[in-house]
Amino acid sequence: MRTLRVRDVMTRKVIVVTEGTSFGDMVDLMVRHQISAIPVVDEDGGLLGMVSEADLISKQAYGGRRRPVSDGFGGLPRRDAREVIRSRGRTARGVMSAPVETTLPDEPLRAVARRMVQNRLKHLPVVDHAGRLVGIVSRCDLLLAFDRHDDEIAADLTASLAASGYSSDGRRVTATVLSGIVTLDGRVERVGDVEAVCRLAWLVPGVVDVVHHLTVGGPESPTERTDASAVGS
Prior knowledge:
Blueprint: H1 6-9, H2 23-33, E1 37-41, E2 47-52, H3 53-62, H4 78-87, H5 92-95, H6 109-118, E3 123-127, E4 133-138, H7 139-142, H8 150-163, E5 167-168, E6 171-178, E7 181-188, H9 191-202, E8 209-216
Parallel strand pairs: 7-8
Antiparallel strand pairs: 1-2, 3-4, 5-6, 6-7
Helix pairs in contact: 3-4
């Protein structure tokens, strides 16, 4: 079973701007291409920062506050002071957020999803090891991992169970999939195998939830169960 990675879902043809791109041109690009963030790059394609809708609307939210920067914005919360400065920007350099969090093409989607959720990120620029922009991944891109038919999920999981030895004598596990929800049935040798099988299921792209009815030990042994929902993905 192949692990889905950033390169499998990222957008490769990215609209970009340079530090000197004007405020108006950035607004035009976002509106015309219906995008909500634009990477800022240098002449070699190196990532310098990102301009988002939030960066641009600072002009409306804070524009007109003409207090000199030299006074330190006494009395203003630090975030507001930063946005007042940003609202005065006329080019990408003046409004962009930098530095920005990035990802590599080979990073697993599951790890990227965790980072985006934990850090409340809507987009992640994708860079190579030299820091050059090679793509961008959005929350919507991550949803592509769930756009799979039940038969595809079941086939991947069945192959994974066989490769891990859970289809051999003494450990016969079967899986059915309905609307992305995996149900595991069968018998395993040890209690620890239950968690291992559930983890295998969670690793299959497209899995929405995992439920198990696994029996531990031989046919005469009492059934032992664990809560599949407690098994981490």
